[in-house]
Every structure is written in C-alpha cells, then in structure tokens.
Automatic annotation (TrEMBL), chain A:
Keywords associated with the record: Cell membrane, Membrane, Transmembrane, Transmembrane helix
Residues spanning the signal sequence: none
Compartment(s) where it occurs, according to its Swiss-Prot or TrEMBL record: Cell membrane
InterPro entries with a match to the protein in the record: ABC_transp_permease (IPR001851)
Protein known as: Sugar ABC transporter permease
Automatic annotation (TrEMBL), chain B:
Family named by the database record: Belongs to the bacterial solute-binding protein 2 family.
Organism: Ancylobacter dichloromethanicus
Keyword Signal tagged: yes
Protein name from the UniProt record: Sugar ABC transporter substrate-binding protein
Signal peptide: 1-23
UniProt-listed PANTHER family: D-ALLOSE-BINDING PERIPLASMIC PROTEIN-RELATED, GALACTOFURANOSE-BINDING PROTEIN YTFQ
Localisation: Cell envelope
MF annotations from Gene Ontology: carbohydrate binding
C-alpha cells in the first residue's frame, strides 16, 4: 500500500486552474461576469451552477467510497426524488414537497445501507439493484411523461438566486458546509477513514461500523435527493428517463479526481467537489469551444486521463518534486 | 412466388384473403415498442382512438423495448388469427423468420414509425413512417421564409450524437436553408434530446455569441430541448419568440404552451397518428384488394403561433405526451 | 549421494532430500539453510509454530516460490521445479487444507481435470468414469462420481484430492494441515488412506497442529523454528515433552526455567469472571477469573484455542454458552463495543490485519478506541488528541516520536506500542494482549514486558496469550494451558514454571476420547 502524507490537493487545484485557463483561451469572454436581473451571469457562474448536481452527488459519494463502498443508485435516486418534487409542487406547500423528496432519498439510502451492512451484499451489486429499479420507479411516478409544474417556490431552487449566486450553488455550498460540520466536527470522519482503511481493526477498536455504513448510504441518498430537486427545479419539470442519467459515474469520477481511493480510507469532501467542478469546467469549455459534438467524449477522456495521471503517485510525485517521499522504503 | 405476386393473385381471385370483409369485424394486433417517450405514449393513445373510430378490435402488446417480446407478440397474434398486424420495430434487423411465419399465415404486416432492414421488404405490406429529413427541411424552409432575406445566425441543438433522427433532421434543415445565403448555422452542439442538456447548451451558446445578441434563431431537433433553451434565454434576459426566433420538431404539448405565450415560433409535427393511415391501407387492401405503396409517408405539419396553439395544446395534452 | 548421510542399516532409502534451503523476503529470513530428508514409505511430520517456515519450505520445494539457495534430489536425481505443475510432473504433489479443486464439477471431472482421457480431441466420458471409479475403489471409496464435488464432506474431498494427486504418478505427497477441519472419525478415514499410500512406498510430508496425530501415524518428525531446522528425529526418539520444547525453543535449565520469586499478593477483587463460556467447534467451555493487579497467561501450541479464548472474552466472537460477571454484575458481551463499555481492551495477534489502520497517523490510531467508546458525537478535540498522543509516545517511547506519521511507516515494535497506547488511552479495567511480543525486536520485547508489569502493579487485570514461555512466567500470576481447543491445566503460584507448562502442553490426554473439534 502506498502510504502518503495527508493530501493538500495541489494537483486538483492546479488541474482546475489549467482547465479554466484553457476555457478562457477558447472563449475569451469566459471570465466575464455581469449582473442580470439581480443574478450573476457568466460562463464561470454556469460552471458552478451546472456543476451543482454532480457536486451534490459527490458529497455523498465520497463518504460511501471512503467506507470502501460505492453507490451506483444516485442517478436513479435523483430521478425518483425529482419526480416526487415535481408531482407535488403545484398541489402542496414547499416544505411538504421538500420533506417528501428528501425523505424518499433517505429511504433509498436506508435500503442500500441495509443491503450492504446487514445482508452483507457487495456494494456494487446492492446499489445496482436500485440503479436499475429506481429509474423504473421514477417512470411510474411520472407515468412515463415529463411532469411539469409552475410553482415559483420550487422553481426558485433551480432558477433563483441568493445574493446573486444561483440557488443550486448556494444549496451545494450549504450541503458541503453541513456535511463538513457533521463529519469533521464530530469523530465520524475519523471513524469513516479508519473503517475504510481497515474494517476489521476498526470493529475490534469498538467502532460501530454497521451503523456508520447505513448512515453514509443514507447521506448519499439525501444528497442525491437534493440534486434531483435541483435538476427538476431547473427545467421546471421531472424527466424520469433522463434526470441524473449516468451522473453516478460522474460523481464517482469526481471523487476519484478528488484523490479519494476506491479502496477506502482517507477522503476529502472539498476536493471531491473540486473534482465535480473540474468535470463541469471541462463540459462547459467543450460547449463554448464550438468543437463538433462528435469530439465531446474524446476531449473529456483525454482531460480526465491527464488529471488522473498528474495525481498518480509515480508521475505526480515526480511532477511535484516529492519523489523522495514515495520512493522511501518502509522501515 | 414473391409476396407481391401472391397479393396480386389473391386480389384477383378473392380466395386467399377474405376480400370484402368489413372493418367492423376486423381484429388487428399491434406490437408496440413500449412507452419510452411521451410521443410513444401519445402514439398508443391515438392508435386506440383511431381503431375505435373505425370499429376495429385493436390489441396492443407492450414489448418494453425488447425484440424478443415483439417476436412473441407477433407469434401470439398469428396464433390468434388476427386480420392484420402492426409492428413498431424496436430494431431494424432480425425480423425475417417471424415475419415469414405471418406471411405463411397470410396475415399482412404494417410497420409503424420505423422501417426494418431492406432484406425484409417483401415480408410486409407497407410501412407508415415520417420522413425526418423532410421534417428538418420544413423547419429550415419556414425560417428562410420568415427572415425574408435578412441575415440570420442560427444556433442548432442537435439530438444524440449518432442517432439517425438527429443526423436526418440536421441534414434536412441544411437542405431547407441551402438556397438562402443570409441564413447561417453558427453553432451546433448536442443536447441529447433532453430539456436539461438543451438548457445547458443554450446557456453556453448565449455566452459564446455575445450574450445572445448575435443569435437570430434557434433550431432544435426536438421540442424538449427547445423548452430548455427557451428557459435559458429567458434567464439571460433574452426574449425568445420575438428577439430570437425558435423552430423545433415533434409538436409536443408543452411547445404549444410556449407558442401561446409568444415564447416559441414554430414546430414541425411528428404525428402520433401513424395507425390511422395504416388502418385505411389495411381496410382498402382487404375490402377492395388495393395494394398500398411500400411506404406511406405521414404529413410533417408545420404549426406556428397563428395556428391557435392553445387549442392544439388542449387537444394534445391528454394524449399521454 | 554426497551430501546426505548414508542410510542407517535396515532403513528405507532416501526418496527426497533437500539440502540448504534458504529464502528471504524483503530482508526477512523465512528459511535459513534447512535440510530435510524423506524416505520411501515414510510419513514425516513437519512441525513448527506460526512463522517457523513450514509454508515457505513447502512452497519452495514445490516451486511456488523461488528459493534463494538449496538443492533438491528426488531418487538421487537433482530436480528444480519452477511451478506447482512442474513439481507434479516431477512427482511431488500437494494437497492443501483448502482443497483447491472445482467444487461445482463432478468428482470424476475433478479427478481428471486437465488430463481427461480423450479420443480425437473429445473427452471420453465413459472411460473417464470407469477410471474414476477404479481409482476411488483403491481407497475404499464407493461414491457417486457424477455428483458435484461440493456435495461431499471435506474429508471425502480431501481423499479425492489425494487420489487425484497420487494418480498423477506422485512419489511424494505433501498434506498441508489436512485434518484441521475434520472430526475424529474423518481423521481415521484419512489415516487409513495415508497408511495405504505408505505401503505403496509413497513418501508423505504431513503438516499438522495436533500432536496426537503425529504420534498416531508418523514415522519421523522434523521441527522448524524461526526459519531454521530445530531438530529431526524418529518419533520413537522424541517424546512429547522434548517435541514441545523443540517447537517452543526452550532449553530446560533451572536458571531460565524458574521465575523470579513472586511475593504472594492478597487475593484482589475479581474484575471479570466467566463460567462455562464456550462455542461449539471453536473452544470448549471454560471458567476464567480475572483479578485486579493479576496477570493470567494463556499457553499452548498454535491452534490450541488461545486466541479463540480471548476473542470470546472480548466479544469478537459470540459465545453460544456460558455467563459473564463483570464488577460483580451479570454482563452480556456480544460485541467488542459491549466489551469496551465494560472496560475491556484487546490487542489482537494479527497486528497488520486487525490492529493498525496503516494509512492513518500514529495519533489517530492511538485515539481510535477511546474515541469509539465516547461515540462519534463526542469528539476529542484536536488538542486533547495531541495531548494523548504526546503522552503515550513519551511514555512508551514510540519512535520516531512523530504523531502525524502514518503508522504503517513505523517498525513492528513501535506499531505494537501504539496499539498498546490505543487501549491504555481508554484506561481499561482488563487488558487482553494476544502475542504482544511477536515479530518485534528484542529491545521492544523488554519494554513491553516491563509495561505489562507496571500496568499490573497499577491494579489493571491482564490476560496475556504468549508463546514466549520464558517471558510469560516472569509476569504471570496464573497460567492456563490449552490443548486441542480446551483449557487442560491451570497453574498458579509456585506452579507457574516453564517445565510445568511444557509438561502440560505435551501431556497425552488421559482419556481416549477424541479431541473436540468442529462437528
């Protein structure tokens, strides 16, 4: 096992900066920001706003992955919760709508958590069940059509702004702050890292690993629910077929770019969110560049490869001049 | 003996098919793909209504996007001895053997919405489909006519990369504007046929084209992406429908709402009524022995704000879109 | 036959001779110039404690690992297999404790897997079945050879694996702990097969933890210790006591065998008492009382039930019978969390897989158990964590004294000290240590033993598993000896001496009843 000093996230920040600069090169007005109807307006704001759903997913996903798990169901949970929110929006008050949608997300997470922690099913299999079934559930809720709503309260969560910032950005920052406060403010973070790093040792040290496992899957479900609400609020409707489609993969990628190992252990919530921004900055850059759409996926693959290579202990270590640290033999 | 010859022979002799049967005694089975989109749901609803109009007993089998289910459904229709089978094929190939079984049972098959691999052409009576190149062309011609010679920069929201509908609608639109040098496509990106991506791509188009001031018109390969694009324009302080012209394809109910509100200009209908022409072809074939052409093209009707969009919306909103 | 000694008069000729086998892994010497000789028709026990080098020797002679030095002769011809397949072709077959055949294939298919009789490229099913039946008949086994392997008991599976190995013209058969999961009757069936093979002149290397079995069937014993040859002798020349002494490396002498005089301590209060605690197939029910300021030692050979005993006490394994009393109150211990709530602490033997979290820092590893006991919602502040880490780094002299270093980068001894610190930080009433001095350097040994004495003096109750009997007798007030998963002797006061412990470990069970194992 490669043992490293605590990460400081240099490579992620550098990668984000490089991609933002590249965007500026292909699109000179990239950093232009103006105020439009009391709301900040510009490509940089788009990156934050469009990156919000994946950033929200990655906040939950990073905890699951730190516990040596994975949650493939988040995209489908987004669709379910978005569908619930859109279906209720015009007939119920916002608190009811939010409670129903977030409650559904927690319930989905509880299901995943019980399958993993109590029944001992491998996480990738356990969450695959909901990934497949969840979209079907969402389609049942919307009866296969795009359910639209007009409620300005719910629409505000997607298209509104707080102090000039789009509401999804504010919600993501809020969720990140809340998660950081809970995880790092309590000893949960340490317990998650210990359990991910060595589950048997952690159980023998008295950590309630099952309970924590269920809790992180529920938190992942909650984050997915919020992402689903934001996605529905954004397009003033719930599109069960497409909402959150494949976003679980973007979220996993964001977590990995953020430096958390798929084998669990050390994690960083902030860097996972930075990872989500890296992905979105890249997407937005491709849209701005005017390149033909056939090249989108190729460009994305090359950039992701470059970012991950820069982080690899061998290459990144040399790049950062830290080669000594990584080549040092264990005493 | 090929199928066509068989059909002609049967039409003359009147012995093989029950020529002269009335529509009212007819039973027709429909193997539908599933309900993957609003349009598909509307097609199912409209098909039922059209069958009822003609007093036809209509049996629908939902294949849930699986060819094996469709093959099973066709076999079961054959076993039941229906008068005709409608098939909306989920894929283009692999139909030969089951369609041969239908042919041997002397049950005509009509393809709806999609065609199958050319190798099977003699295995079905006719195909009722829309021409997606033509749809794009109608959209392009409307735009050329509307801008009337003024220069116009168009941004295009493509469907999913590689989907044949996207390729065709792109080609048709380019054909439609080919004669007008004043109309130019300045940006083209994929919005994956979804609202969310349509909105995101439009946001970036607006930023890339001077805050949207340089955009004269938006062309979207489907209405869903256009609904997203309209939101993006409104959020950027633009006025779609007046400052920026919009034209898209499908004619789903929500675009009529936008047209009624003056935020969208035109849509080209992909009619959900594929079954109507198919029923008529089957009835004519059975009653009079008229062999229909191999391809019945549905109408690609253009709707604009002048076509009382609210009433169209009311008519369409319960079709299942 | 230059290097081997001439065969003794009347003895069978040498079948397999290993000379000077050595193997190191990353600076650690697993085998150091080991010689080993197997005769025709001999059943030869290969014995040793954990880490003695048995597995490495087997792997080196079957080509699974490349040896650094040494030569091997089979029937006087030098061979050097580079893989298990080559070893089989040369005539050396191995059957491991975990039978590595395909459980879902039929018995016949398993017997001929990879060497099915074929004609024109097609498997001749009839021929294969006929031969399978004939082969198993040789071992007195008449079973349905078309049934999947997994439908038979582990013992039958072992015999099938042996039949397969022998049929591949094996001259030498290595059985690596074949009896670990068999019951007494199954062991007898296996022994019958082994005797039959012996009569055919096949040489058998038999690895086991059960000394009874060694004396029941083996002709010769070779003992490894710390990678070296500790001794090799015919069974008749090596009585149990001497064998145990060879395995544990004790030279009996008055000087080292006797512990320093213990001042008789007044019986203190019982911290915890267990009555009839046990689990079927795991450890036979036992009574155990742990007192403040007293050390109870657990001694026995590997697999005798020492670790199993402490895991039951700590709730790492759930007991299926028995009762516990902690501080005079009836208690139920179903998990480590419950044990911790009662003031227990447990340093497991497997430091890497069950102890440290390699990636986390020394500080985080030290505070882990205390934090777990406080619960996630009562976090230790960073300042408290730093203070605890600094205190124990100083107290236990953990090196390097850097609390922010990932613990995986520390040496074994320092990792062990950090794990002790993890539990000391919880101020336990009862501390359970499983092989606290295994795999650490000599200096750390002395420090940890001193620490055990100090903790005891401070009034902590300790339960210590150790193979280091010399050390154990210097600090234990009471030693419980285990054999065959049962507590067989309890030595107290002046009885706590190395010779007495060794005698108890080696003693032949007085009754003829079979040892208790998995049903």
């Amino acid at each position: 096992m490669a043992l490293r000093l605590p990460r400081i996230g240099t490579s992620q920040i550098v990668a984000l900066a490089v991609i933002l600069l590249a965007n500026w090169v292909v699109s000179p007005q990239f950093f232009d920001i103006r105020l439009q109807d009391g709301r900040l307006f510009g490509s940089l704001i788009d990156v934050l706003n469009r990156g919000a759903p994946v950033a929200l997913l990655s906040i939950g996903m990073v905890l699951v992955i730190a516990m040596r798990g994975i949650d493939l169901s988040v995209g489908a949970v987004m669709a379910i919760c978005g569908a619930i929110a859109a279906s209720l929006a015009d007939s119920h008050a916002l608190p009811v709508v939010l409670a129903a949608a977030l409650g559904a997300g927690l319930a989905c997470g509880l299901w995943n958590g019980l399958l993993v922690a109590v029944l001992g099913i491998q996480p990738i299999v356990a969450t695959l069940i909901l990934m497949v079934a969840g979209r079907g559930i969402a389609q049942l809720i919307t009866e296969g059509r795009i359910v639209t709503f007009t409620s300005p309260d719910l629409a505000f969560l997607g298209g509104g702004s707080v102090l000039g910032l789009p509401t999804p950005v504010v919600l993501t920052l809020g969720m990140m702050a809340l998660t950081l406060a809970i995880v790092r403010g309590s000893a949960l973070g340490l317990m998650i890292e210990a359990t991910g790093g060595n589950p048997r040792a952690s159980a023998l040290a008295g950590i309630g690993t099952r309970l924590i496992t269920v809790a992180v899957y529920m938190w992942s479900g909650l984050c997915a629910a919020l992402a689903g609400i934001v996605a529905s609020a954004d397009i003033l409707g719930a599109d069960a077929n497409n909402a959150g489609l494949w976003l679980e993969l973007d979220a996993i990628l964001a977590v990995v770019i953020g430096g958390t190992s798929l084998f669990g252990g050390r994690f960083s919530i902030i860097l996972a969110v930075v990872g989500a921004l890296i992905i979105q900055a890249m997407n937005t850059g491709i849209l701005l560049s005017g390149l033909p759409p056939e090249t989108n996926l190729v460009v994305k693959a090359v950039v992701v490869l470059a970012v991950l290579l820069a982080q690899s202990p061998r290459i990144g270590g040399h790049l950062a001049g830290l080669g000594v640290l990584f080549s040092r033999k264990k005493p | 003996m090929n199928f066509r010859a068989l059909l002609l022979a049967s039409a003359v002799s009147g012995t093989l098919f029950s020529v002269g049967a009335h529509a009212a005694d007819m039973t027709i089975g429909f193997s539908q793909i599933g309900s993957e989109s609003g349009w598909r749901a509307a097609e199912t609803t409209v098909s039922k209504a059209e069958a009822k109009k003609r007093d036809i007993t209509f049996k629908i089998a939902d294949a849930q996007q699986k060819q094996e289910n469709q093959i099973k459904a066709i076999r079961s229709f054959v076993a039941q001895g229906v008068d005709a089978i409608f098939l909306a094929p989920v894929v283009a190939t692999g139909w030969d053997s089951v369609l041969k079984e239908a042919k041997e049972a002397k049950i005509p098959v009509v393809l709806l919405d999609r065609d199958i691999d050319p190798a099977g052409k003699d295995l079905y009576l006719t195909a009722v489909t829309s021409d997606s190149v033509h749809e794009g062309k109608v959209a392009g011609e409307w735009l050329v006519k509307t801008v009337a010679g003024k220069p116009c920069n168009v941004v295009e929201l493509q469907g999913t990369v590689g989907a044949s509908v996207a390729t065709n609608r792109k080609k048709g639109f380019e054909d439609g504007i080919a004669g007008a040098s004043n109309v130019k496509i300045v940006r083209s990106q994929t919005g994956d046929f979804t609202r969310a991506k349509g909105k995101e791509v439009m946001e970036s188009f607006i930023k890339a084209e001077g805050g949207g001031k340089d955009i004269c018109a938006v062309y979207a390969h489907n209405d869903d992406m256009m609904v997203g694009a309209i939101q993006a324009m409104k959020e950027a302080g633009l006025k779609p429908g007046t400052e920026v012209l919009t034209v898209s394809i499908d004619a789903v109910p929500d675009i009529f709402k936008a047209m009624a509100a003056g935020e969208a200009n035109a849509t080209v209908e992909l009619t959900p009524n594929m079954a109507g022409p198919a029923f008529d072809a089957v009835i004519a074939f059975k009653e009079k022995g008229t062999v229909p052409p191999k391809w019945i093209q549905t109408e690609s009707k253009l709707y604009t704000q002048a076509d009382n969009p609210m009433s169209v919306y009311e008519a369409k909103k319960d079709l299942g879109y | 036959m230059l290097a081997t000694s001439p065969p003794a008069a009347g003895a069978a000729p040498d079948l397999l001779a290993l000379i000077g086998f050595s193997k190191s892994f990353a600076g650690f010497t697993a085998l150091d110039r080991v010689d080993f000789t197997l005769k025709v028709g001999e059943i030869h026990a290969l014995l040793g404690e954990n880490g003695a080098g048995k597995s490495t020797l087997i792997k080196a002679m079957t080509g699974v690992v490349a040896r650094d030095a040494g030569t091997m002769r089979l029937d006087g011809i030098e061979i050097a297999p580079r893989s298990a397949e080559e070893a089989v072709r040369a005539g050396i077959a191995t059957v491991y404790q975990e039978v590595n055949l395909a459980p879902n294939l039929s018995v016949a298919q398993n017997l001929f897997l990879g060497r099915q009789p074929t004609r024109f490229g097609l498997v001749r099913e009839g021929e294969m079945r006929r031969r399978a039946r004939a082969l198993l008949a040789e071992f007195g086994l008449s079973i349905d050879i078309a049934a999947p392997l997994e439908s038979y008991s582990v013992a039958i599976q072992h015999i099938i694996a042996i039949a397969r190995a022998v049929d591949q013209s094996a001259r030498v058969l290595i059985l690596d702990e074949p009896t670990a999961s068999l019951d007494a009757q199954e062991v007898e069936v296996l022994f019958a097969v082994m005797r039959q093979l012996k009569a055919r002149g096949i040489g058998i290397v038999f690895v086991t933890h059960f000394l009874d079995q060694v004396y029941a069937i083996c002709d010769r014993i070779t003992v490894l210790r710390n990678g070296r040859l500790a001794g090799s002798a015919p069974v008749a020349d090596l009585p149990r006591l001497d064998l145990v002494r060879l395995m544990l490396g004790r030279e009996l002498s008055a000087a080292t065998g006797r512990r320093p005089p213990h001042e008789a301590r007044a019986p203190s209060t019982a911290v915890a008492a267990f009555r009839g605690l046990g689990k079927t197939g795991y450890v036979v029910p036992f009574d155990l009382t742990l007192r403040a300021g007293h050390v109870v030692g657990l001694a026995g050979l590997l697999g005798s039930g020492r670790t199993e005993t402490v895991r039951l006490v700590f709730g790492a394994e759930r007991a299926d019978c028995g009762a516990a009393q902690v501080a005079g109150q009836k208690a139920s211990i179903g998990s480590p969390r419950e044990a911790m709530a009662l003031g227990f602490g447990y340093c497991p033997e497997e430091r890497k897989t069950e102890g440290i979290v390699a990636e986390l820092t020394v500080r985080e590893n030290i505070v882990l158990a205390l934090q777990a006991r406080r619960g996630a919602l009562a976090p230790l502040s960073r300042r408290e964590q730093d203070a605890i880490a600094a205190k124990f780094i100083r107290l236990l002299d953990i090196r390097p004294p850097d609390p922010e270093r990932p613990i995986g980068l520390l040496s074994g001894g320092n990792q062990q000290k950090a794990l002790l610190a993890r539990w000391l930080a919880t101020a336990p009433q009862l501390l359970i240590l499983d092989e606290p001095t295994r795999g650490i350097d000599v200096g750390a040994h002395a420090e940890i033993i001193k620490l055990i004495r100090d903790l005891c003096a401070e009034g902590m109750a300790l339960l210590v598993v150790s193979s280091e009997l010399d050390e154990l007798v210097t600090y234990a007030d009471e030693v419980i000896v285990l054999r065959e998963r049962a507590h067989v002797a309890r030595l107290t006061g002046a009885q706590v001496e190395v010779p007495a412990i060794l005698a108890a470990i080696a003693e032949v069970p007085s009754s003829a009843s079979p040892p208790v194992r998995a049903a």
